[in-house]
Write a structure and sequence with these properties.
2 copies of one chain form a homodimer. By secondary structure, chain A is of the alpha/beta class. Helices cover 36% and strands 14% of the residues of chain A. Chain A contains 15 helices and 13 strands. In chain A, the strands form 4 sheets. In chain A, strands 7-8-9-10-11-12 form a 6-stranded parallel sheet, covered by helices on one side. In chain A, strands 1-4-5 form a 3-stranded antiparallel sheet. At the A-B interface, α2, α11 and α12 of A face α2, α11 and α12 of B.
């Protein structure tokens, strides 16, 4: 079996006006869908970050991909992830780049998507689920978490393509709790990952408390994406020890490895062992040595899109367990192909014991490229079946609509800061720490 | 595809009287060969440590193995390697147990062999080489090293089954150099791993110097299996800085994580950065955290037989690179099935940049269970071909002869100390440190 084509589809999907410390989500999120075609007409698929830069990256790799045996593709391209990652941990981090927009991890992102597409292709050829090409599932049900955001009114999309606003505006505790109630009613999630760093920390603390009262048994994670100083991080950590310490965690409260280490140290000194999660300070394997040495991070957020794919998630799991770290999973705005890649990675990674993050409830069924519509969460979980590969097929008409949206929308890279200036405050700048 | 049978073959193979700090090799080394049989009559094979204890372990697992899908077997049995490993690092280490005789790592050894047999079975079913089920080879040629030992006269085997002594006695520098010349002439090795901890350190230092003069371009590793005090280790490290520092290393000079760390610290203080390798202080993932924290080990010796199999070797490779450690590979007395499992692991593990250890030249072609005879080293390397699975088949007649040798020999576990008392010194005890 040889690869005879790599089709790169840049698409846009409606995205509601969600807030984070990075700014505001644009009306469209950009994604790239890959089709890896074999000489016997089997097509493996993957989904990753979007925009022009990554699409150009895939085009530039075509010469190495076409003609390759899909069973050997990950090995053939190993230089993309085993070459030295340039930059200091701060350059490599997502402190100053939203995920998917850091040129320093472009190679890992290209590799990851190609590894996933090759696994899907091999799985389809062998009629085996992807997780069973990775040693075999250790779980049949993969848990995801509710992912509430403070948000403005609007459902995403622009002009005639503007979408209904299923969730409504949420810029304070009460509407945020209503948002989570709706999200959990729809999906059955058993964990809450709450994006913060948007409102005054006192308001966010109150929001967490109201969430905790509304869902007393559910672990809560709070993720301000570095919006806080060490002092504020410690203050929040102390105020919410009970709410976050009960199976939840505090994710990237402050910027940089040293800041994270200082927060940890001060919380421990106060008798609070709420773990610190990270997908900002730690975004690739080379960051882990410093993170471990400084005890800066206790839970690593994997991501099949930029850590190196599914096997890298397994490597990361073993590494985390070895060094006493927990393993969770990060998400960006995405569609169903990514849901399934994340689910297969989690199914084949025994150490991934936290529910995975997912933006999936924020996507509109109208944009789904997976045949048959959106993947369903049942009791908050995606079920791993015996379907070959990732277990989903592309709807080519839907994919074509995604390409049309990409062609007609003005966005070519994610820029939450520009969007914030456009809609909220013409002088807005991302300032770290903000509080 | 379902597994319908697991055949466990305990065999014995002739082993020459090789010396180490553990004592003396018995006339027979014990191995176990597995056959994992599918309902469509495909048979996956693996080879591991021998003796009665591990054979009983496999028998006890049959209920979990038979009926399983071989693509899922590693996932189904994951508790064997993900359950907590009991004991302190000293209990888990091979300081007081020869490899394959520590009851604390029995579960990992059972898992490793079953993972390998399942991969071979899947590879045969799909007509794919094992390394290409692991992401694909990153190299076609896997380098192994010459592995000289001080030895007594004799070729292994007993009584009418005594074998010709191809290498002769070697209990000093000159015969040891002759041994290596013969071994390299036969196999083309480009590295020398030298088992020491047997004679006075001054004699061993002189042996390394003579090896270095005889093979000036070849990296040399010296492995006394903990025979030395910290002081002696540092003395040898200083004396041989040039000879071992040139791409070689000093393996397990002294016992225990703290001893290793002290040797490292004192060598560095003397301006000598000869790395310390280990397959004694560090034998499983849980040992790595302490080893990294103390800088006790700079090169980890993987082993497909007890670290958890081939995927675990990949995990270990990524972990080692992440923490700035080198990766090498350990060996025991073995036949061609193990050679191929080691070679496929190395082919699919980019970070494995050292030549693998191998006792293979010490085995007698008469005992080989691989059809067609011993696997060949060309220029010191095993070539990874396109043959399915591990790329070798069993010769059932040879396997039957191995079982007969097992049945007729008196050995049921490896015991180098007893053998030393029997043949060399009736009062011999393993004393650490000896020098």
């Amino acid at each position: 079996m040889k690869i005879v084509d790599l089709r790169v589809h840049s698409i846009a999907i409606a995205d509601p006006p969600l807030r984070s410390s990075y700014g505001l989500h644009q009306p469209y999120a950009l994604r790239t869908v890959l089709e890896l075609v074999s000489d016997d007409k089997i097509v493996g698929i993957a989904e990753t970050h979007g925009g022009d830069a990554i699409a150009r990256g895939f085009e530039a790799l075509k010469g190495r991909v076409i003609g390759a045996d899909p069973f050997r593709l990950a090995g053939l391209l190993i230089d993309l992830v085993e070459g030295d990652v340039p930059g200091s941990s701060l350059d490599r981090s997502q402190t100053f780049h939203v995920p998917g927009e850091n040129p320093l991890d472009l190679k890992q992102r290209l590799y990851s998507a190609l590894e996933i597409a090759a696994l899907d292709l091999c799985g389809r050829a062998l009629r085996k689920p992807v997780c069973d090409l990775l040693g075999g599932r250790v779980r049949d049900e993969v848990a995801f978490s509710a992912y509430p955001f403070y948000k403005h009114a609007g459902g995403g999309g622009e002009g005639k393509d503007a979408r209904p606003d299923e969730y409504g505006e949420a810029l304070g505790p009460e509407p945020l709790v209503r948002q989570v109630k709706h999200m959990i009613a729809q999906n059955g999630f058993k964990d809450i990952k709450f994006k913060t760093g948007v409102l005054d920390p006192e308001v966010e603390i109150e929001t967490v408390r109201q969430l905790h009262r509304a869902f007393p048994g559910l672990p809560i994670r709070m993720d301000p994406n570095c919006a806080w100083s060490v002092e504020t991080s410690v203050k929040v950590g102390k105020a919410l020890a009970k709410e976050l310490g009960n199976g939840g965690y505090l994710e990237d409260p402050t910027a940089g490895m040293d800041g994270m280490a200082a927060v940890r140290k001060q919380l421990l000194a106060a008798g609070i062992d709420t773990p610190l999660g990270s997908n900002v300070a730690v975004t690739c394997f080379p960051d882990l040595r410093e993170a471990v040495a400084k005890d800066a991070v206790q839970i690593v957020l994997s991501d099949v899109h930029y850590w190196g794919g599914l096997r890298a998630t397994q490597h990361l799991g073993k590494l985390c367990k070895t060094f006493g770290l927990g393993l969770s999973m990060h998400s960006n705005s995405h569609l169903g192909v990514s849901v399934m890649a994340m689910a297969h990675a989690a199914a084949a990674t025994p150490q991934l014991t936290y529910a995975c993050d997912t933006h999936y409830p924020w996507s509109d069924a109208k944009d789904e490229v997976v045949a048959g519509g959106k993947v369903r969460f049942t009791n908050g979980c995606v079920r791993i079946t015996d379907r070959p590969g990732l277990g989903v097929d592309l709807d080519q008409d839907q994919l074509a609509r995604g390409r049309e949206r990409y062609a007609s929308c003005p966005y070519r890279k994610r820029d939450d800061e520009a969007e914030m200036r456009k809609h909220v405050d013409p002088n807005w700048k991302r300032v770290l720490p903000r509080w």
